[in-house]
Design a protein that fits this description.
319 residues, alpha/beta, 7 strands
């Protein structure tokens, strides 16, 4: 757990104690005869709360200062990492636009260009859209692309379709090959945009790698459990039929049932293990944005990893 998160947790607990103590003073005090002792305890508790709050605020300021410095250093940190590569940017409905802007700003310094951008809509990740997505996957499949028979979930099948249509395929190294023709890509793109599943720009060429940028949902509230599970399946299908995917989020998605936590915990069989996927859980910080670019360069060659500040990360920053 990060220092910031622990500070918040301690502060919350301390606030709860303080409120309980205040209640005791004003309600029970006149009858207990211990008001002076409770008052002293309350003062001590308030001081502890103030101390934890000050530490948390200082930690936040330190992170902000590091990010400000990092913005200046980030282009050099990714320089040439994706030389002459094409990147596909995919965003989810809950994405923070600042995160997307920051990642896009590092693609050119890395020596790459954007092959296309895809914005997934709510309908794409909804339970109600699942059958239609499976139908599109089955009827618009480019020649030579196969859908899994072992995993027929909507997320897996549409991920496999989009991986085959919009990504190159590589067995490792720099020998990635196109999997679809221009007309085949157009059919897939038009079917999904006209069905109001996503927005798309570009996609005239297949990309060497996809960066999926999502928000920070922990997958616990409302329909978020289904969404997180769908996005896990989608990412694995995309990585299975494509040259590589980096899934990047804010920290919350690496907690509980969030998509990053699920990807890191996924052990669904041999097919999933073949998917070339790396995860980043701090895309709202410069370190995570740098990791997204560096991890993209690595995943093309078959090297995967988990980067960030949350449980399940194996390194803070991709090397």
């Amino acid at each position: 757990m990060s220092h910031n998160r622990s500070g918040i947790a301690v502060a919350g607990a301390a606030c709860g104690i303080a409120l309980g103590t205040v209640f005791g003073v004003y309600v029970l005090g006149p009858h207990s005869g211990a008001s002076s002792h409770i008052t002293r305890h309350n003062v001590d508790t308030e001081r502890k709360v103030d101390s934890v709050t000050a530490e948390r605020n200082q930690a936040n300021k330190s992170v902000q200062a590091a990010d400000q410095l990092g913005v200046t250093l980030a282009p050099d940190a990714v320089k040439g990492r994706l030389q002459d590569k094409a990147v596909l940017i995919i965003t989810t409905p809950d994405v923070n636009k600042d995160d997307v802007k920051a990642v896009n700003g590092l693609i050119e310094p890395a020596g790459a260009h954007v092959a296309g951008t895809i914005g997934l809509k709510d309908k794409f990740v909804s339970r109600d859209g699942g059958d239609d997505l499976k139908s599109i996957a089955a009827t618009t499949l480019p020649a030579g692309i196969q859908l899994s028979e072992r995993n027929s979930s909507p997320g897996w099948h549409i991920g496999q379709l989009m991986g085959g249509a919009f990504l190159k395929k590589s067995e490792g190294g720099d020998n990635a090959q196109e999997q679809s023709t221009g007309p085949e890509r157009k059919i897939v793109r038009d079917s999904l945009t006209q069905g109001d599943f996503l927005t798309a720009d570009g996609l005239d060429e297949p990309a060497d790698v996809a960066i999926l940028i999502t928000g920070g949902s922990d997958g616990k509230k409302g329909n978020n459990d289904y969404v997180a599970g769908f996005l896990r399946d989608f990412t694995e299908g995309l990585g299975h039929n494509g040259s590589g995917v980096v899934a990047a989020s804010r920290p919350g998605a690496a907690e509980d049932n969030g998509v990053i936590a699920r990807l890191r915990d996924s052990h669904d069989g041999q097919e999933n293990s073949q998917a070339k996927i790396s995860t980043v859980d701090d895309i709202n910080h410069v370190t995570g944005q740098v990791s997204a670019i560096r991890a993209s360069a690595d995943v093309i060659t078959g090297k995967t990893g988990s980067y960030g500040i949350m449980d399940g990360a194996t390194a803070a920053v991709a090397q």
